[in-house]
Amino acid sequence: MAGTITIKNGYVFDPLNEINGEIMDIFIKDGKVVRELSAAEMKDVKVIDASGMTVMPGGVDSHSHVAGAKVNAGRSMRPEDHYKANLQKTSLTHSGSGYTVPSVYKQGYDYAAMGYTTVFEAAIPPLEARHTHEEMRATPLLDMGGYLILGNNFFLMRYLHDGDTEKAAAYVAWMMKTHKSYGIKCVNPAGVENWGWGKNIHSLDEANIHFEITPRETIKGLSEVNELLGMPVPLHLHANNLGHPGCCTITEDSLKILDGVKPRQNMDVEWAETKMDPARKCSVYLAHMMFNSFAGTTWGDCESGVKEIANYINNKDHVVIDSGCTPFGEATVMTGDGPAIQDMYKLTGNKWSNTDVEMEGGSGVIPFTYFKSNPVHSLQWAMGLECLLLINDPWKTIMTTDSPNGGPFTKYPEVMTWIMSEAFRKQTFSECHKWANDRSELGSINRELSLYDLAILTRANPAKTIGMAHRKGSLGVGADGDVTVYNINPQQLDANNYEALLQAFRKAEYTVKGGEIVAVKGEIVSLPEKRTYYSEVHVEDEKEKEMLTDVKEWFRYYTLGFANYPTPEKYLKNPTPIQVNVVR
C-alpha cells in the first residue's frame, strides 16, 4: 500500500513531542503519521523492524546552497570536483557527479542516503529565481523551498530609507508570490550595494552610497516588515564584515538591534500534533555563526569570538543560529556577499567568479580547501563546533556546514560525531595546528550531545525555526511520514567508538519519505514525488497597487521587461503555497 507503513520497536527521538528514546511504533498512512492502523490495513502494510535502532523524523536542512546561478557557477568552475566523485546510472536513478557541488540528481540521492528529506536553499536572487526553481525541480526526493535575497534591493532600500514600512511590506509580499520564495534573506545589509562600486561597509551606522541607508536601518526595517507580515521564518541574517578578524563585535551588535522585536508568525496551516508549541519564538536567524565570530584585529592575532556571542545568546531568547561548521577538506565558497569573496581571492589567489545582480545584490564563488595544518583553518574547525557546544539550549542551534562553504553536506556525519564524541574531537585536535586549541575554548569543553539533542539540531529546531513544524521535524499525528532509522542502539551507544557513529550517520539504515522507503543502507530504492514550498503573503489590495505603481516606474532600470520578471508556478515541482497573513 503506497504511503502506508509501520516502523516497529525502534527507540524514538521526537523532541517536538518530548519523546526521548522510548520504544514505540510509528504508523504512516497515505503519507502522513497516524495514531494507528486498522486490522485490515495492517494486513498489507509494509513493516520495518527497527528493533535496537534509533528512529527520528526525516532530516531538515534549513540552510544549504543547492540550486541557482551561483551553485551552477561553482559546478562549472570545478571540473576536478566532478571527476573525483561520480555516481553511475541505475535502472531507477540518474548518473551524477560532484563532491562539494554535486549535480542536482546526485545531491538529492546523497541527502536521502543520509536520512534527510527536506532542504531549503539559503539565497535566491529574485532575478535568478527561475533558474533556482529549475534546479530545485530537478533535484529528486527532497521537499524544498528558499529564501529571497532582499538586504540590498533597490526598492526596499528606498522604502526603508523613507520610513515607509507598509509599502516595504507590500513589496516583500509581492516578491514572495512573484518568485515563489519562502522568507527574507539579508546578506551584508547595505554593503553589497556598495560592492557594485568597488566599495563595502564596515560598521552598522555607515550609510551606503546613493541610498544613504545603514546596515542598522536595513536590519531593523526588514525585521519589522517580516513580523508585520507574519512570515514563517524570522529574518535570515548574514551579518556585515563576515569572515574578517574582529567581525564578532558587529555580529553581536547586529543581534542586539532585534532584541525586543516581537515574533509574529501568522500562517494559515493545519498543524501536526506536538506536545511543544511548534511556532517560532525568535525574531532573527543568524546564518553560519562560525564565519561571523572571529575576534582579533588581523589574521596574525585572530582567535575565536564564539564565546562572547554564545554568552549573549544564552541570555536572550530572540536568536537562533546555524553553525556553519568547517569539517576540513575541499569546499566551494559561494555567497551573496561579493566583497567577502573578493577578499578571499586576494588571500588565496584561487580562481574566482563574481557577479552583480542588477538592482538586487551581488555574489561570488571561489574554490577552497581547509587544511588541518593551516592555523586559521584549524581555528575555524574548533569555532564551528563551539557554536553548537557553547550555546546551552539546543533549541537555539541548528547544525550546518553552510554547504558547500564550510564543506559539503555529505560531511554532516563527521560534524554529528564530533559534537557527540569528545574522544573524536581529541583525536582531530591531535592532527590540527595548535591554534585550534590555543585560540579557542573547544579543548576545555567536555560536553557531549545526546541523540535527543541531535534530533533537535537536525530535525525539530530547523523545522520549528523556519515555520515547517506544522508538517516536518516531528512524528506527531498529522506530520509528514518522513522518518530516518539509524543503526544505532541507544542502550549500547559508546561515544568513544566514534567510527561506529560515523558509519551509522553516513548511510541511514532506512530513509522514509511520505510513507515510502526511499533509501536502504544508502541505496536509493524509490523516487516518490516532492514538493516546493513558498509563502503566499496577503496584504491589502490598495497597498499593493500603490507599491506596484512605484515598481513599474522604477523597473525601467532592469534589463528585462516587467511582464517577464515573475517566476511562473510551472517552474515548481508540486508547488505548495503557505498562506501567510490571511485576514479572516
TrEMBL record:
Annotated ranges, domain Amidohydrolase: 46-519
Top-rank taxon, per record: Archaea
Residue stretches spanning the membrane: none
Molecular functions per Gene Ontology: hydrolase activity, acting on carbon-nitrogen (but not peptide) bonds
InterPro entries assigned to the protein according to its UniProt record, in alphabetical order: Amidohydro_3, Formylmethanofuran_DH_asu, Metal-dep_hydrolase_composite, Metal_Hydrolase, Metallo-dep_Hydrolases_sf
Name recorded for this polypeptide: Formylmethanofuran dehydrogenase subunit A
Biological classification of the source: Archaea, Methanobacteriati, Methanobacteriota, Stenosarchaea group, Methanomicrobia
